[in-house]
User: Fold this.
Amino acid sequence: MKESVREYIDSLANLKEERALRLTRERLEAGEDPLKLIDDIMKAMNIVGRRFEEGEYFIADLMMAAEILREIMSLIEPRIKPDVKPRFLGRVIVGTVEGDIHDIGKDLAASMLKANGFEVIDLGVDVPPEEFVKAIKEYNANIVGISALLTMGVESMKRTIEKIKEAGLRDKVKIMIGGGATNEIIKEYVGADAYAPNPLVGVKLAKEWTRNE
Amino acid sequence: MSEISNILKKWASKEGVQFKSSEAEKEFEERAQRVGEAIQLKVPDRIPIAPDAEFFPPIYAGVSLKEVMYDYNKAYAAWSKTLIDFKWDAAMPPFTYSGKVFEILRYRQIYWPGCGLKDDATIYQFIEPWQQIKGEVIYEGMKPEEYDWFIEDPSDYIIRGFLPKISGVLAPFRNLYPIHAICCWYQGLFESLATPDIDKAFQALADAARETSKWLMSFIGFVMELKSMGFPVFTLSATHAPFDFIANFFRGTRGAFLDIYRIPEKIKAACKKITPFMVEAGIVGAKATGNPIVSIFLHKGVFMNINQYKEFYWPTLKEVLLKLIDNGILPYVYTEGDYTKYLDIIKDMPKGRIIYHVEKDIFKAKEILGDKFCLTGGIPVSLLQAGTPKKVEEYCEKAFEVLGENGGFILDTDLPLAEAKPENLKAVNDAILKYGVYRK
Assistant:
C-alpha cells in the first residue's frame, strides 16, 4: 500500500478530522478517482469497526466518524461522474416507530450502514406502520431497521411488523430492531428477525443478510 | 459527614404527617425500615420493592397523560391508585410537569400530548437541540462559539442567550442588557426592561410562575398525602452530572461528542464552571424537600469510551457526588444504559454513601458493587411488557437468589416503567413473598 494511502486511511481511522479533510481535498485536486477514495474510506471504516469491537471506540467515536464521513462525502460526491452508478451492498429502510421522536440511535445506525456500503432510505421519526409498508414496496427494499427508545414504542413496533405481514411483505424483508427499549425478549415479542444492540451489529446483520441472498 | 443512620432518620421522618390510620402509620414505619436497611447494606425482613413508576400510573388508571398534565389532581389519583393496588415499599413521585406552564412559555424542549404529540400519547418526549422533526429544526442549542459566553457567565448566557432559543415568549430577553451590568449602574439594567416586548415576556414569566406555584403546591400536598397513606417517598429532588447538563440541554448529544474532539478544553471548562452549581442544586433540593436522597440520572457517559469517560464525564460527576455526600446527602445514582464497564470507577465512592441503580447487567454489578452500595433494579420492563406471570415468577426466583444475597438490594424495574401488564406486576409482588423473604 502506498504511504500516502496508508496515511489517508489512518487519518480517518484515527478520527483526525482536519487531516482527513485536507488529504481528501489534496487527492481530489490531484485528479484521483473518487471511487478509489471511497474504497479507502471503506477500509478505514473497517478499522473503526474493529476498534469498536475491541472496546477502544464507543458511540461518541462513531458519531465523530459519521461526522467526518459526512464532510468528506460532501467533497467526494460532486466529483463522481453522473453516469457512474454507485454500487450498493443492499438497500435498507430505517425509521423510528410511530409515537417516538428519538433519532440519535436511528441516525447513527443509518450513518454506519451508509459508511459500510448500504443505500439507506431514512423515513425519519414518528413513522406510522403504513409508511414502512409503503416504503418497502416503493423502494423494493429487503432490509428494514426499526428503532424505539421508549417502551411504548415497542407496541408500535409490533403493529408495524404486523402491518408488514398483512401487506404480504414479511417474507420479502429481513427486519432488525434496535434502541433503548429493545432486546432479545422484545425481538420475540414483536416478531423481528434480529436485535441489534449497537449500530455496528446492525451493519453486520445487514451484511449477513445480503450475503445470503 | 453525617452518619448514614441519621440521614435515613431524616428520610423516614414522620414530622407533620397526619396518617390516615394507625395501620398506615405502622406500614410507613415498616416500609421505611425495610428500605432503610437495604440502603445501609443490611438484610431487611424481605426484599423491598420500589419501582420508578414514571408513566405507568396514568395508563394503569385509565387517564390520559394529557389529562394529568393539565389536571394535577387526576395525576395524583392515578398515582394513589397504583400505590394502593401494588403496595410498593417506597413511592417515586410523579414527574408529569404542568402542560399549562409549558404552554404559557411556549417551551420547545419538550413535546407533550397536544403539543407536538398526539392527544393520546402516553409519554412526553425531550427534543434535542437542533433535532429535526419532519424536516424542521425545532430549536437551536448553544453554538460552539457561545461556549466562551457560557463559561464567563452561565447565568447571563442562559437568561439572554439560551432562554430566547427554547421559549417562544422569552425571545425578547435577547435584548436585555447583560445581567452583570447591574454591578455598575443598576438603574441601567432597568432601562432595558422598559420595552413593550420585554414587558410582555415578563408578564408571561409571571403567569408561568403563578401556574408553577399552583402545580408545586398541589405536588407538595400530594407528597404529604402519600406519606399519610403509609408510603415513604424515595426521592424528591435531582441534580445533574455536569457533562449531562451541558450535553442534554445546551449542546445536544452529537454536539457534545463532537466538542470532545474539536474543542475539548471548552467543554471541560464549561463542566468545571457549573460543577459548584450542580452541587448547590442538590443541597438546596434536599433542604427544600426535607428528603436527603437526591437523584442523579446519568445520561451521556454511557456513550463514551472509557478514556473519554475518565477525562470528560467522571471528574466533575465525582466532585458533585463527594460534595453532596459531605453535605449529608445520599445521592441516588440512576444509570440509564449499560454502565458495566464503569463499575470499577464508581466503586471508589465511600461505602454505603450512594444508592446505585442498574439498568443493564445488574448481576455483574452485584458481583462488583454488592458489598459497597445498595443496588436498585433487577426486573426488565420488557419482561413485564412482553412476558407472562409465569415467566415473571421464574425470572424472579432465579434473580432474587443472586441479587438478594446479603441484602443491600431494592427491587426496581431496569427502566422507568410505562407499558407493563398489571398481572405481571402482581406476579412480582407474589414472587417477593415467595422467594424474597429473608426472615419471617
